[in-house]
Amino acid sequence: MNIKATADDKVITIYRNISLSLTSLMYLLDHTGPSVFYKSLLIMVLFLFAQVFTIYYRRLRKWPRVLMLAVSIEMAGLIVLTLFTGGYDSSFKLYVLNPVLIAAGSLSIYFSWSLLFSYFGVISVFCYFFLNSSRKTFAEAVLDNGNLFLVMVLTVIVMQMVNRIKRQREAANARTNETMEHIKSLYHIVETSSQHDFMNIGQVITDYVVKLTKLDKALFWFAQKSGEPAPQSRQTGWHQEEERFLFAELEKHEHEWRLQREPVFKSLPGLGDFLLMPVRMSTRFVGMIGVKLEASEGLEGRRWYIQQLMFLSELSAIILERHELGVIENRLIITNEQNRIADEMHDSVSQSLFGIVYATHSLKQTWRKMSESELEEQIELIHDSATKVAKELRITIYSLSSKKSGGPTWLGMVRSHLKSLSRLNDVEIELKITGDDFSLPYPYHKALFRIISEATGNAIRHGAASRVDVELSLKPKWIRLSIVDDGVGFDTDLLWTESEDNTGGLGMKNMQYLAQSLGGDFQLSSSENAGTRILISIPVGVAELKNA
C-alpha cells in the first residue's frame, strides 16, 4: 500500500536521518569500545531499522494502538542500544528522542510521558547497578545527568504545545472548509431553484443550519405578510406536534422580533434556550432563523453559531429579495409581451382578418351577379389576404421562440457553463447531446441543469478528475443523462451512511431528490481510485401528471 508522504512525514524523516547521522558520527569518532568495523556494521543496521520504522509509522498513523506498539518496540531497542554503548556516556542517548517525538506528535499525552519516564527509569536503574564504576549514589548519578533529562522533558513539552496548536488550526481549517462547501452547495441550490422549490426555502435553510452548527434543532419562522403568501415556516429536529407549539410561541413575540436587528438569546417556556437571528430585506422584516442551544455550549461555541446565523440571515434575505424582484420582473415582461402582441395583432393581423371577413360577406351577397372572371379574381384576392395574415401570425409566434429568433437556448447555456468550468479548472469536459429540448417543460430544464452542474462540480472539487464525459439523450418520452469522471472515486456505502447521519453526501442527495421529484431513477456507482458514474433516467410528462 503506497501512502503519500505528508509535509510532517518529510520533516520527521529528515530529522531522524540527521539525528542518526550525527550520533553515528560521534560514535565512530569515539576511540573506546569495539573496532570501527563493528561500529560501522552497527550503524548500517541502525539506518536500516530507522527506515523501516519511518515507513511503518507513516502507514500506521490511522491505527493508534498498533502505532503505540511500534513506538514501544523502537524505544525498547534504543534503550538496549544505549545501555550496550555506554549508558549515560553513549553517543545514542539523545537519539531516543525520535520515538518520544513520534508519541508526542501522534499519540496521547499520557503515552508519550509514560514512554519518557520509562526510559529515565530503566537507564537510571541499569546504570546505577551495572555501570556505576565510581560508586556514586543513585541521587548523584541522576543529578549528574539532569541536563540530559531536562532537555528531553522540555523537548516533549514544546512538541506537545506545537502539536496542540497545529491540531487546533487543522480543526479550524477543516470546519471552515466544510462550512464553505455547505454554503456553496446551499447557494447553488437556491440560485437554481424553481418556484416550487422556493416555497421550501425555509426547510433548505434549517437543514443547512443543522449541518453547519452540528446542533440537533433549527428553525426558520416567517412573519405574516400582507398581500401574498409567504414561504411556510420550517424546522429541523422537532416532532410534528412540537412544531405547532414552537411556531405558536414565536408568534407571541412577533412585535419583539420586528424590532430586533442583532442576534438575541431567548428562553422559550417548555422549549429551552434559543439563539435567534432576524432576517431583514431592504423593504421589510421577513422572520427569524434560530437554533436550540445545548447546556454544555461555551462562549466560543456561541460566537461560532452567531457567525453562521448572521451569514445565513443575510444570504436568506438576498435570496428572498432576488426572488421577489424576479417575480415582479417576470410579471412586467409578460405584461409588456402581451401588450406588444396585442398591438401587433391589432395593427396588422386583426385589420387583415376584418378585411377578409368583410370581403367574404360581400362575396356571399353578390357572387350570383358576378361573372366567372370577376368571381375568380375576388376569390384570389381573399386567398392572398389570408396567406398574408398567416405569414404575419407565423412571424409573431416565431419571435417568441428563442430557438427561432436566435436567442440563447437552454442547451447553449449548458454548453457555455461546461466550457467555462473546463477552462477555469483545466479539466477536459466532453458533452454529447442527442435529441432536441425545444418541447421540454421548464421544470426539466431546471432540474437537469442543476444535476449536470452539481455532478461536474463534484467531479472536479472532490474527485480531482482530469476528464468528465457528459452524455444527454433527449427523446419525446424519455431523458437519459450519463456523467462519468476519471477521479479518485469513493465508497458509496460510506457516502449514504454519512448522508443519513447529516455528515456528508449532500450533493448526491440533492441530485437524487431532483431526479426522483420528476419521477426518474438515480443510479450511482463508484469505488476508490476508479472514478464515478452517474446514470439518470427521467420519463417526460410524469411530473406534470403528479402535480395535476
Characterize this entry briefly:
This protein has 548 residues and is an alpha+beta fold. It has helices at 7-29, 36-59, 64-84, 97-106, 109-130, 138-144, 146-191, 195-198, 201-213, 240-252, 254-259, 299-366, 372-399, 402-405, 410-425, 442-461, 492-500, 506-517, 542-547, and strands spanning 218-222, 234-236, 264-268, 272-280, 285-292, 428-435, 467-474, 478-485, 521-526, 532-539. The strands form two sheets. The chain has a five-stranded antiparallel beta sheet, sandwiched between helices. The chain has a five-stranded mixed beta sheet with strand order 6-7-8-10-9, with helices on one face.
Structural commentary:
There is one protein chain. With 548 residues, the chain is of the alpha+beta class. Helix content is 64%, strand content 12%. The chain has helices at residues 7-29, 36-59, 64-84, 97-106, 109-130, 138-144, 146-191, 195-198, 201-213, 240-252, 254-259, 299-366, 372-399, 402-405, 410-425, 442-461, 492-500, 506-517, 542-547, and strands at 218-222, 234-236, 264-268, 272-280, 285-292, 428-435, 467-474, 478-485, 521-526, 532-539. A hairpin with a 3-residue loop joins β3 (264-268) and β4 (272-280). α4 runs parallel beside α7 (146-191) and α12 runs antiparallel to α13. It is found in: Cell membrane; Cytoplasm. It catalyses: ATP + protein L-histidine = ADP + protein N-phospho-L-histidine.
